[in-house]
Amino acid sequence: MAAKKFKKSYVLIPLAVIVVAAVVVILIVRPFGGGGAVGTQYLTEAITRGDLEKSISSSGQLEAGQTRSVNPVPSGEVDDVQVKVGDTVKRGELLFRVEDEDANTAVTEASRSLSAAKKQLTAAEQGLKAAKKMHVTTAKEILEQQQSSSLSGSLGSDTGDSGSVGTAAQLSTPSAAEKKAAKDQEAVNRAGKKQQVANAEAQVVSAQLQVSRAKSTYADAVETRDERDVTAPVSGTIVAVNVKDGDSWGSGASSTTSSDSSSSEAASAMDALTSSSSSSGSSAAVEIADFNNTMLLAVGVTETEVDLVNVDMKARLVFDAFDDLQVEGTVVEVAPLGTLSGGLVTYQVKIELTEPDARLKPGMNVTATIVLDSATDVLMVPNTAIGGDADSGWTVQVAPDGDTTSLRTVTVEVGLANDSYTAVTGGELAEGDVVVTGEVSADSATSSSMSLGGGMMGGSGMPRTFSGDPNGPGASGSGRGSSGASGSGTRP
Using a CB cutoff of 8 Å and minimum separation of 24, what contacts does 199-205 make? Predict the structure, then answer.
């Protein structure tokens, strides 16, 4: 049975070739539309209305929007490492500890010093209170004390004669000299109290200063001790762990820092995510990447196209890993300096994704289409149908009802153009008009038949080309270089 089938197929092949050859010969001899120069065929296409877009495309890899490098301040032995590469952590979550006995000793000593300073302050405040309450003996009290003392002495020596009454009367009235002496003593007493209060106040101020210094020392000691518990400064994904239990951590490490991710950092992050070992490309104890809130894509744009790209332009992103996923990004940076590689100069363009899809990870391959310009609901004419130049005017050849034997030339005004189509903004053209896009020569049976077949399938063959102005339709953003400029026209 197999042999019979083989023979039948073998016989049918020549018959098929003969039929195709006959059709090709007929088409070569007979021009499109039933007219025109013998041996010349016209390629045509109907004008459509739709949305036109001018864009460039380039590929790259996703990066985390931001990375944090975590470096504990205290020195000591690493202990109780809680995380590994790929783990998701929340802000404040414990990463590991650094055992440091010197830190505990410093806290104990600082606490003792603070307690002693507080006791000294309490004693100084009590001394000030006592100084302020100290009684000052007045001149009147001094005189009364003197009189009382003198009277007691006189009464003790009284023998009962009549002269003692006069002596008591004399003691009741102090002399001017005694009054002056009493006032002077009162002034001395007041000055003494004032000095004691001032001294007590100075002791309080000094004690307060000691307490303040002790508090600061204690707070610093506690902070250093507490930094042994190294926690996540931000929420994110662990992309590097460079410590393990038992490691010694040096005292010269810097505090926790942050930096925007670069291409090399993103590559390191990707390596870390796909490896069970810690990352060797970073000196930080732990690195945390945030690619849940923002992600970045760095793509290369050629020197012939970079001037077309501006910050805040939108970009459509598609991913090799997910056929059903397309997201929008925004251009956030255009590098001012280019990179030369293999004779080609490219400029890095960074595109930001906000609130990225949960499936996306650093290192994934992405193709970005940066939208340079767009127009909606416009007449779209194939670029190969437009001739002329900016000086003499742009023209198209219209085939009424598709008849190429009676072509008429129409002057048009053009607008936005991409690699395939140009928006016609003025001229006697309408949707559905048939325009000539190229010619097929039948001088050579072989080449003509190939061109003719291509023309019938979709307009290839010998396309019409623009003449004159290099900045005419389709000339700008024409898709040269590695970034691959492109354009699209959406028909309703």
Answer: 199/131, 200/124, 200/127, 200/128, 200/130, 200/131, 200/132, 201/128, 203/124, 203/127, 203/128, 204/121, 204/124, 204/125, 204/127, 204/128
According to CATH, the topology of domain 31-52+377-490 is 2.40.420
The amino acid at residue 56 is I
Q: Other CB atoms closer than 10 Å to residue 252's CB: what's the count?
A: 8
Buried b vs exposed e over 219-234: b needs ≥16 C-beta within 10 Å? eebeebbebbebbbbb
Question: Of 387, 394, 490, whose CA–CA distance to 53 is shortest?
Answer: 490
Q: Where in the chain are the domains?
A: 31-52+377-490, 102-154+170-226
d(CA 252, CA 162): 100
DSSP conformation letters of 427-464: SS--TT-EEEEEEEE-SSHHHHHHHHHHHHHHS-SEE-
Q: Which two tokens stand for residue 195?
A: 């000095």
Position 246 scores a pLDDT of 87
Q: Which residue type, as a one-letter code, is found at position 182? A: A
Mean per-residue pLDDT of the chain: 75
Length, in residues, of the chain = 492
C-beta separation of 291 from 356 below 8 A: yes
CA-based end-to-end distance of the chain: 52
Query: Tokens in use for 477?
Result: 């953003």
Kindly give the interhelix angle for 139-156 and 176-226, rounded to the nearest 10 degrees.
120
Helical axes 176-226 vs 101-133, angle rounded to 10°: 160
Is the CB of residue 97 less than 8 Å from the CB of residue 228?
Answer: yes
Mean pLDDT value across residues 268-280 = 36
User: What span, in angstroms and rounded, lies between the C-alpha atoms of 266 and 283?
Assistant: 15
Tokens 């325009």 found at: 435
- Lowest-pLDDT range, 70-74, 127-131, 245-249, 345-349? 70-74
Return the pLDDT at 256: 40
Which tokens in the block code for residue 4? 């019979």
How many Å apart are CA 154 and CA 156, to the nearest integer?
A: 5
pTM (2 d.p.): 0.51
Q: What is the reported pLDDT for 65?
A: 83
Report CA dihedral (258, 264, 268, 273) to the nearest 10 degrees. 90
Q: Which region among 146-150, 265-269, 319-323 has the lowest average model confidence (pLDDT)?
A: 265-269
Round to whole Å and give the CA distance between 215 and 223.
Answer: 12
Average pLDDT, stretch 100-129?
87
Alpha-carbon Rg for the chain, nearest whole angstrom, is 49
- Spatial CB neighbours of 438, under 8 Å, sequence gap ≥ 6: 42, 43, 384, 455, 459, 461, 462, 463, 464
- Say if CB 476 and CB 422 are below 8 A apart: no
